[in-house]
Specification:
This protein has a seven-stranded mixed sheet. 37% of the residues lie in helices and 13% in strands. By secondary structure, it is an alpha/beta fold. It contains ten helices and seven strands.
Length: 276
C-alpha cells in the first residue's frame, strides 16, 4: 500500500480511522483507501451519512458564531478531527479577530494535518490527547499558551462522545472538563442516536456494526442520556434538538435550516449549554 506524502511517519495506514472516514464523508482528501472502504460499507446501511456530517458541521458553525456573538471568544475543540474548510478557527476569527482556538485529537493524522494547516496562524494551538484523559488535555502547554481558563471558554464536543463507551465513563470526563471552566463557559455538543434516523433501528445497527469492526465502537444514546452530559450547564433555547433545528439561520445552504428536505440531517442531537 503506497503511503501518501502527507501521511505522518509511523502511523498504520492499513487500519481505518474515524477522523479520516469523517473527512471522506465531507469530501476531503486526507483519507486512505481503507477509510473509504469502511465509509462505503457504513453507507450501504445508512446512505445519508454524508448528509448527517454536513448538518453536524453546519450546526458547529452556527454555534461558534453564537458563542462569539455572546462574548465567548475562546474555543477548546476536543475530537476536532482533520481540519476542513470552515473549521472552528476560521469561523471564530472571521467573527472576532481576537478569537483563540485549541484543537485536540488523538489521531496522529488529524494532529499532523492540523499543525500543517495552522502553521503561522496566530492564537491557535494543537494538542495530541484523548478525551478519556481530560487532565492531560487541561495540563497541555498549548492549552495554557493559547487559552485563559479563568475566562469563559466554549468547549466543543462535536461528534466525539458517541465514540466513548460507557466503560470509558464519558460523563465523568465531561464533568472534569466542566469543573475547569469559568462561569459563562459553553458546552457545544452533538451526539449520534437512533432517534431521528429515517431507518429502522435494525437497519441502522448495520452501520454501528461497521464501526465496531474497525475497533471504534459507535455508541448510540437516547436523547435523555445525551442530555445528561449537560449536567451543570443550563441548556440554551431551543434545548437539545435535531441539528438543523438548532437556531437555523438559512445561511448554511440546504444543511443549515430546519426546512432541509433530507431526513438524514435530523438524525441525532445537538445542543449548547452555559455554565452558571
Amino acid at each position: 500500500m503506497e503511503r501518501p506524502a502527507w501521511a505522518p511517519p509511523g502511523i498504520d495506514i492499513s487500519m481505518p480511522s474515524v477522523s479520516r472516514i469523517y473527512d471522506y464523508y465531507l469530501g476531503g482528501s486526507h483519507n486512505f483507501e481503507v477509510d473509504r472502504q469502511a465509509a462505503r460499507r457504513a453507507m450501504e446501511f445508512m446512505p445519508g451519512l454524508p448528509k448527517i456530517m454536513q448538518a453536524n458541521r453546519a450546526f458547529m458553525r452556527r454555534a461558534v458564531r453564537y458563542a462569539v456573538a455572546g462574548g465567548v471568544t475562546q474555543f477548546l475543540d476536543i475530537g476536532s478531527g482533520i481540519p476542513t474548510f470552515g473549521n472552528v478557527h476560521e469561523i471564530a476569527q472571521a467573527a472576532s479577530p481576537e478569537a483563540r482556538v485549541v484543537y485536540v485529537d488523538h489521531d496522529p493524522v488529524a494532529v499532523a494535518h492540523s499543525q500543517a494547516v495552522l502553521a503561522g496562524t496566530e492564537r491557535t494551538g494543537v494538542v495530541a490527547a484523548d478525551l478519556r484523559k481530560p487532565r492531560e488535555i487541561l495540563a497541555a502547554p498549548e492549552v495554557a499558551r493559547v487559552l485563559d481558563l479563568s475566562r469563559p471558554v466554549a468547549l466543543l464536543l462535536v461528534a466525539v462522545l458517541h465514540f466513548l463507551e460507557d466503560a470509558d465513563d464519558p460523563y465523568a470526563a465531561v464533568a472534569e472538563l466542566r469543573e475547569s471552566l469559568a462561569p459563562g463557559s459553553l458546552l457545544i455538543l452533538t451526539h449520534a442516536s437512533y432517534e431521528g434516523i429515517p431507518l429502522s433501528e435494525e437497519d441502522a445497527a448495520g452501520t454501528v456494526e461497521v464501526y465496531r469492526d474497525i475497533r471504534n465502537p459507535l455508541v448510540m444514546r437516547s436523547g435523555e442520556q445525551i442530555e445528561g452530559f449537560f449536567d451543570g450547564f443550563e441548556l440554551i433555547e431551543p434545548g437539545l434538538v435535531a441539528m438543523p433545528n438548532w437556531r437555523p439561520d438559512g445561511s448554511e445552504g440546504a444543511a443549515g435550516g430546519a426546512a432541509d428536505e433530507d431526513p438524514y440531517a435530523f438524525s441525532g442531537f445537538a445542543g449548547v449549554g452555559r455554565k452558571a
